[in-house]
Design the sequence.
């Protein structure tokens, strides 16, 4: 088995190659044209090849040279924060602005340590009031407050 | 030129614009003090609000946020040894040491006065160098523009910390994602995966906030260190004549270094402060005092980062090339306001340029006058726990993304780029080169295609045009220098010091 000398670089290289592959696949479906009269796919395909090469360089470097170990990732935090934003987008057209801010901030608060229920509840209410006054009434954001 | 300056001041001194300038400067100071919310994320957050403002007012306010953040960052660096911005990392060394010796007031005053002098002098450079540079750029054709953009991106890569190869890959990734949407030439949809919402491209605000605000929040979640403030009563917030004589030369040298490095793309302000610190240490008669509360170690870097913050406007206003993420956002503002970025901004929008210059003077003066008395209030804000701050950042980001075109799709883009930004951060891939590429992507392709159309597909056109060839040669040299091992080690040392 190959020893990953620098896991950060190996993963980064693979990620870049993945992006390059998707980009190359998408742009090869477009008309390429010629160098003198480029179609919509020409430049993206060029970038895809360049990105693939650079990704390969990062990958090979990561296999050959020692580097730092991967830092500890906060997966739970990442999941909760991402969920909070997605929930905001999902609820806003269905349940209204207040419900969207409520769920979004509640998911964020759930990601915080130390977790203090009473203070957090008060904080969320304050945040809803602030956002309603500033964004909906003040800046005339075009949303429904309630469903 | 005098007429132009008078015009600028008459616009900047109107009651509305004074209010925007003050609002921007105060907001900038605030976010400079609070960790986890940098100027790029703040400007992105405010973009939707600026749609209805006049271009002049909106530039005045956003610029105020940018240089206000430099002031705010130094306050936390001195009082807490917690730099709010990367550009004040070095200030924390001697500034905090001075605070511990009971000279916090003197350190803060040095930072404020140094920044003010640097700000005033470097604005002069903007006044004198921008018009001729724009004049020169008016003769630029597509090959020259292509080359100047390539140079800008390469310099940004070589000045970024960490691996050059990864930074380059981030630039190319940014360039590619910048192309998502309708092709300007053929009108065909590219890289949209059939999503109608993507036909206008990935939204700039959502991408920036995802990469800079959301991923920062996730990163800071696991950081539970409590922050203790230097609780001493702040006194002596002024300098004696002896102090002033001790700082004036470091301030002037810092201004010089900052002005030059600020023009270069890629973290100009941060690097300028590092270079200034090592220079002051190198030429000092008592280098052993550095790290133990040397006043020159505060004065030099603080002036350098402020000067660099101001001169980074030069390439943005004259060439339409951003030197850092905040400038990239300001270019987006220009586009949203229907102004084509480039050398014509100066001649077509003279009020915009000169009012911005005048507002920088006014804003810097406001910061000195307001911030010194307000420092007590700012430090109290520092005791605000992070767990109250970040849900607000996330909610504001989501609202900001939605407001860009009243569509929840942008909220999902925000979530996706927050996720991507955090993963890339784990792998030590910096978001700044990505963002520069993202903004320049469509313009770079446009000029590349035009050039190749002129030459009927012969890439030699970039070498036949003397200005284009020179710019590309400089880019090549910069890139080669950056990957040569010895230079690279020096650079890493300088960036890590």
Sequence:
């Amino acid at each position: 088995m190959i020893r990953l000398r620098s896991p950060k670089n190996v993963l980064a290289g693979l990620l870049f190659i993945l992006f390059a592959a998707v980009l190359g696949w998408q742009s090869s479906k477009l008309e390429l044209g010629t160098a003198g009269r480029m179609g919509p796919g020409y430049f993206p395909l060029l970038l895809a090849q360049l990105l693939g090469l650079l990704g390969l360089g990062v990958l090979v470097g990561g296999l050959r040279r020692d580097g730092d170990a991967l830092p500890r990732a906060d997966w739970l935090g990442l999941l909760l924060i991402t969920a909070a934003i997605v929930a905001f987008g999902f609820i806003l057209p269905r349940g209204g602005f207040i419900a969207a801010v409520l769920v979004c901030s509640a998911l964020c608060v759930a990601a915080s340590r130390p977790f203090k229920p009473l203070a957090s509840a008060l904080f969320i209410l304050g945040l809803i009031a602030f956002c309603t006054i500033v964004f909906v009434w003040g800046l005339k954001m075009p949303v429904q407050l309630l469903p | 030129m005098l007429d132009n300056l008078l015009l600028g001041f008459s616009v900047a001194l109107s009651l509305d614009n004074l209010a925007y300038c003050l609002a921007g400067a105060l907001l900038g100071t605030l976010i400079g003090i609070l960790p986890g919310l940098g100027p790029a994320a703040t400007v992105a957050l405010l973009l939707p609000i600026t749609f209805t403002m006049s271009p002049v007012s909106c530039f005045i306010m956003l610029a105020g946020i940018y240089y206000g953040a430099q002031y705010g960052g130094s306050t936390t660096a001195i009082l807490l040894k917690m730099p709010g911005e990367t550009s004040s990392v070095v200030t924390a060394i001697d500034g905090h040491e001075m605070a511990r010796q009971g000279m916090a007031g003197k350190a803060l005053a040095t930072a404020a006065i140094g920044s003010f002098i640097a700000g005033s002098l470097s604005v002069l450079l903007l006044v004198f160098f921008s018009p001729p540079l724009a004049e020169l750029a008016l003769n630029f054709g597509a090959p020259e523009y292509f080359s100047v953009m390539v140079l800008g991106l390469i310099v940004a890569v070589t000045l970024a910390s960490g691996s050059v190869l990864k930074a380059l890959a981030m630039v190319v990734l940014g360039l590619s994602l910048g192309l998502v949407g309708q092709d300007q030439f053929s009108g065909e949809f590219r890289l949209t995966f059939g999503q109608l919402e993507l036909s206008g491209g990935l939204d700039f605000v959502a991408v920036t906030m995802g990469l800079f605000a959301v991923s920062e929040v996730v990163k800071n979640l696991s950081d539970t260190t409590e922050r203790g403030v230097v609780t001493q009563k702040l006194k002596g917030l002024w300098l004696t004549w002896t102090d002033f004589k001790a700082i004036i030369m470091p301030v002037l040298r810092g201004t010089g270094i900052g002005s030059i490095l600020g023009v270069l793309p890629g973290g100009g302000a941060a690097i300028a402060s590092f270079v200034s610190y090592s220079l002051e240490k190198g030429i000092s008669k008592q280098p052993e005092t550095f790290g133990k509360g040397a006043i020159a170690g505060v004065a030099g870097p603080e002036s350098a980062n402020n000067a660099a913050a101001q001169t980074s406007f030069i390439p943005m206003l004259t060439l339409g090339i951003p030197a850092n993420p905040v400038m990239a956002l300001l270019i987006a503002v220009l586009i949203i306001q229907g102004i084509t970025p480039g050398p014509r901004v100066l001649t077509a929008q003279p009020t915009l340029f000169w009012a911005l210059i005048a507002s920088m003077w006014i804003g810097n003066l406001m910061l000195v006058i307001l911030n010194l008395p307000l420092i007590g209030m700012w430090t109290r804000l520092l005791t605000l726990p992070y767990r109250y701050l970040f849900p607000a950042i996330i909610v504001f980001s989501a609202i900001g993304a939605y407001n860009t075109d009243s569509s929840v799709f942008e909220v999902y883009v925000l979530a996706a780029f927050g996720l991507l930004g955090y993963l890339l951060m784990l792998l030590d891939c910096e978001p700044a080169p990505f963002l520069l590429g993202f903004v320049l992507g469509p313009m770079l392709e446009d000029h590349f295609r035009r050039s190749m159309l002129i030459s009927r597909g012969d890439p030699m056109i970039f070498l036949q045009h003397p200005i284009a060839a020179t710019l590309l040669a400089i880019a090549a040299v910069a890139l080669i220098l950056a990957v040569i091992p010895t230079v690279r080690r020096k650079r890493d040392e300088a960036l890590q010091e």
